[in-house]
Amino acid sequence: MMSSIRERPPDPAAAVSVRGLRVRRGGREVLRDVAFDVPRGSVVGLLGPSGCGKTTLMRAVVGVQIVQGGTVTVLGRPAGSRELRRTVGYATQSPAVYADLTVQENLRYFASVLGAPRGDVARVVDEVGLGPHRDQVVATLSGGQRSRASLAVALLGRPELLVLDEPTVGLDPVLRQELWELFHELAAQGVTLLVSSHVMDEAGRCERLLLMREGQILADGTPDALRARTGADDLEEVFLRLIAGHEEVGSR
Amino acid sequence: MSVTVTLATTRRILGQLRHDHRTVGLIVGVPSLLMILLRYVFDEPALFDRVGPLLLGVFPFVIMFVVTSVGTLRERAGGTLERLMTTPLGKPDLLLGYALAFGLVALVQVGVVLAISLTWLDLDLAGPVALLVVAALLNALLGVALGLFASAFARTEFQAVQLLPAFVLPQALLCGLFVPRPEMAGWLEAISNVLPLSYAVEAMREVAREPEPTGTLVRDLVVIAACALLALALGAATLRRRTP
């Protein structure tokens, strides 16, 4: 099953189609022959421990990462193409907003850069629940609020693909729940979301999972399929069994 | 390139400064204070008439260099540059946005320092004030352009601050502010001939001494503008959409 996707050609109908992706950073092979597809209109979770290459993979999908080999096709075009600059929204792990501007000023600026309609600013502020803080300078926000401000920027202009690097870190459970509801609402409207997390309890909220470890995709499937494959119920346990199985195969 | 995006960038940078009163105060206040000190430390109007205008050329250059190099380094380190590089924003939009914003700030700076110098400090200027402002503005843009370029060589704010002595002090020593350039050793003069600040200082001297614009002044202004454009182009080359 895993080998078949490597041999298949990139799927132009998929939101993201990656084949044979290799990336070296700081003299180390961070991604080793990664291949997967992300179907359109789904919420796909990219899970794995810190340092396994999730961020590098997301950077490659957005097209800001220099890659050593392989292809990354996004919405039918090579990642980083000019045409994708309005249709892919990206929120990095550390919030990429101007700390010395207010939430609204940040959003207004990015909205004009993206050519997003004026009303978008008010919409995304509400979507991430920052309404009461819209006129607050970002530097005075809490960490979670700051990362929601950064998420709001990614939502501007209604992108077709959202690449979100650990968007729910440090949020209280109620907010986390609300953000996941937002992600599913967006997916229902046809938006594709690639969301990374290192917390396993978020895995259950995704329609599909990509489990990563040491620069490789260990498993790719729906949470239920992965449970069935490993015979474990808890996704943490699923991950552990997949690692054990992978190491066995590797040592043989 | 898009005018809307360039202007939005200018507005954004000015917005950041609006939230930072202290930086604005320093940009305008420090050169004013230095000018006043210069006038009264020497207490010799003839000397002030000679050196004052040169400093009016050097201040905008130095201060805009520092502000821009640290500002763009923050964009690089804070992830906002990477985010912008995933959007339709063109590199010229960002560079011109910076140049325009800090050009406006430089206009305020030069305006205030010049007003203080001409009224309170009795600076005697032979040439037209407007030309002095033009020359000072070009110097400010040169500082912005070099600052953008230099920021590519710094990874941290500690390093960015060290760029000031590295990029600016050698130019300040060789630009003719301390020793007239023709009196320097041949090899030093040759070096000073290729450094833009030499032309900036010479331009200010021409405006201060000559009632009418001279050929030298025009040449100097063209050289400064060309250097600023060259540095902007080099700065654009350091902005990468893809990074390792």
Strand content of chain A: 15-25%
Secondary-structure-derived class of chain B: mainly alpha
Q: Which structural class do you get from the secondary structure elements of chain A?
A: alpha/beta
Largest sheet report of chain B: none
What series of H and E elements makes up the topology of chain B?
HHHHHHHHHH
How many DSSP-defined strands of chain A? 10
Distance between the termini of chain A: 18 Å
Question: Low-confidence parts of chain B, pLDDT < 50 over ≥5 residues?
Answer: none
Shape of chain A: globular
Number of helices of chain B: 10
Shape type of chain B = globular
Radius of gyration based on Cα positions of chain A: 18 Å
The H-and-E topology of chain A, N to C, reads as HEEEHEEEHHHEHEEEHH
Subunit arrangement of the protein? heterodimer
Individual helix count of chain A: 8
Low-confidence stretches of chain A: none
* Biggest sheet architecture of chain A: 6 strands, mixed
Please provide the count of β strands of chain B. 0
How are the elements arranged and paired?
The complex is a heterodimer of chains A (252) and B (244).
Chain A: H1 2-7, E1 16-25, E2 28-38, E3 43-47, H2 54-62, E4 69-74, E5 77-78, E6 88-91, H3 103-114, H4 120-127, H5 143-155, E7 161-165, H6 173-188, E8 192-197, E9 208-213, E10 216-221, H7 223-230, H8 235-251
Chain B: H1 3-18, H2 21-42, H3 45-78, H4 80-85, H5 91-119, H6 129-150, H7 157-174, H8 186-193, H9 196-209, H10 215-238
Explain this structure.
The complex is a heterodimer of chains A (252) and B (244). Chain A is α/β, with parallel strands linked by helices and 252 residues long. Chain A is built from 8 helices and 10 strands. Chain A has helices at residues 2-7, 54-62, 103-114, 120-127, 143-155, 173-188, 223-230, 235-251; strands at 16-25, 28-38, 43-47, 69-74, 77-78, 88-91, 161-165, 192-197, 208-213, 216-221. The longest helix of chain A is centred in the last third of the chain and has 17 residues, at 235-251. The radius of gyration of chain A is 18 Å and the shape is globular. Chain A starts with a helix and ends with a helix. In chain B, 44% of the residues are buried. In chain B, 79% of the residues lie in helices and 0% in strands. By secondary structure, chain B is an all-alpha fold. In chain B, helix 6 (129-150) packs parallel to helix 10. The longest helix of chain B is centred in the first third of the chain and has 34 residues, at 45-78. The A-B interface holds A 25, 62-66, 80, 82, 85-86, 88, 90, 92, 94-101, 105, 109-110, 112-115, 137, 153 and B 4-5, 8-9, 11-12, 15-16, 19-20, 78-80, 82-89, 241-244.
